[in-house]
């Protein structure tokens, strides 16, 4: 699929922070009202609150059989993320949106913030020493009755087991979440029910991660040099099961340098101030909730280079339950006005865990008002919900933050690719337009960086990066893949097409004039300066590009690039007409005469100019199916579309095992567009049989074996496959039009898009069979 770029210093665009500051204010309002309405949960012995069992259509669970293949899930709210771990109490890496490390010579990368989940537990000292929960081997004898559930509807992780150390057993339940209602808060709760009388110990820690070593200067190294350095350090660019991704050696997290770390025993507060290497500052604070009866004298502060903790010893009675909690607040300077995270965490503690959790679950309930419901296929329904969960958990509403291909993790070093515009954005557009808006707003906010880049390449307009820094929009492709940054320029058209799709879905002319139009105009100017006019053939061409088939790094007239550029030029002209601007007459002229490689004898398009020597060993096959991506939907006759599909399928891999999980959706949508219903369903089914969905939490990987996980690109493709592919709908000037007959697998009773937003109206769109068995589509105004 891609690559990776030279590091640059921080320069967050001002418009990236406005909504984040508003969200911070909302967090203050929530916890302040909670503190007034609800005091902290007291009692040395408490009842463990009962909860409704999660809906099976939203529940992903792990048991003891998953310990050997456990691929961590993700808790996130678009601002803060952390990975899950089997015990529920381990320290795990966390990340903040737009919080990037800019080390000299490297590309920018997400800086791992101090880990906040950890609560460690010991049943006390024994003749053989002292054991701690988080170091105990996972085994049936130590962890009985084990169950961990990621509730997608509530975005909570619950872990339950009976922990045994020596002769002492303890029933443990852990609940954790990253708040959707108060975006800069997270919380974890530990409930212990000892089956013994005695003294226990606990440690409430923030993990201060060591800088990653070795660190590679990816902003300078060639591919050969990078591979040599990786090997010389005893590392490899291969995946290690179950969850270490390939390229982990170079996709490591960036560094958060700790400037100060304090543990306040009397107030039960941990406080950390730090900054990303070469980048912005951050603050993180944890307020600890303890049972009544524990005095400051029972608590001890601990601090080392890599750990900040409050530790305590306390007596317990057999059969009684004891509740502990951590309330954690986060901020960094690119989120707007400075915030006192210590007070934010303290206020959350005063409000109590249940109050914060209730607000969080209410916010997620509101998100699930828009849904995709499948009647007749429980497995497909659960996968839909897990993909929507990961998309929603890693996105923000009404901001200017993009989404990385691998969510809020170090995968692909957190950069924004065309994936954000062409794969993820369309999946959110009709169901969650306020989140889709953030993705197109990112391109508007970082247009100045694109204009600087175009000028550096002696081009006009804006030249958007292949890999954009999520905070400032600068090019961050690694040096060894720099050719992609220079030549895989279809990204410029992808950016423009997404802007226009947002306008078509919302009809918001004010937004188009203010935000969309400057991007569309800049992109059109870029293509106008980048095309070459062949006077002899009387056509425009785009030379020396890297094809979307990246094995071909210097070709002329890549079909996907040219078709996308032509559309970008047309929509710039159309946008000018809508807002009363005067378009450059060259835009439509170039679009009309831009060469699209075509085989006259076979009556089908070609991937690029013939003759181009085939890269037989690495070539993934024709990418003509991408012409059917719903946002591009390249115009052509029904005959040519069918021929394109037949030509592309000649060398396509089997539907059950394509080379990359990006391949499922375009192949399925292309088949549906030409009436090949069985093939459309087969490609869709490939999602379930390819080995790219990792247990226990349905984490998508880029390929079956590379373990490049949390791959939102494929999640977005899967959702597009349903929203546009199986419905046959396309966004056009007059709304949602039916481009072709809808598709419904034989074992499905219906497919319903719930609460679709279109130009201020809300609809349910249902695909089902009529009395005669014909698949039909119906729309109902809500």
- What's the helix count? 17
Distance between the termini: 40 Å
- Gyration radius, to the nearest Å? 27 Å
Shape call: globular
State the domain count.
2
Helix % is: 25-40%
| Strand line-up of the largest beta sheet | 1-10-11-12-13-20-17-16-15
User: How many beta strands in the DSSP annotation?
Assistant: 32
Classified by CATH, the class of the largest domain is Mainly Alpha
For the sheet with most strands, the description reads: 9 strands, antiparallel
Beta-strand proportion: 15-25%
| Low-confidence spans | 1-15, 32-50
Provide the CATH architecture of the largest domain. Answer: Alpha/alpha barrel
> Given the helix and strand composition, which structural class is it?
alpha+beta
Q: What name is given to the CATH topology of the largest domain?
A: Glycosyltransferase
Instruction: Write down the overall mean pLDDT.
Output: 92
Can you walk me through this structure?
The protein is of the alpha+beta class and 782 residues long. It folds into two domains: 328 residues, Glycoside hydrolase, family 65, N-terminal domain (Beta-galactosidase, Chain A, domain 5, Distorted Sandwich); 411 residues, Glycosyltransferase (Alpha/alpha barrel). The strands form ten sheets. Strands 1-10-11-12-13-20-17-16-15 form a nine-stranded antiparallel sheet. A four-stranded antiparallel sheet has the order 7-14-19-18, with no helix packed on it. Strands 21-30-31-32 form a four-stranded antiparallel sheet. The longest helix has 22 residues. 55% of the residues are buried. The N terminus is likely disordered.
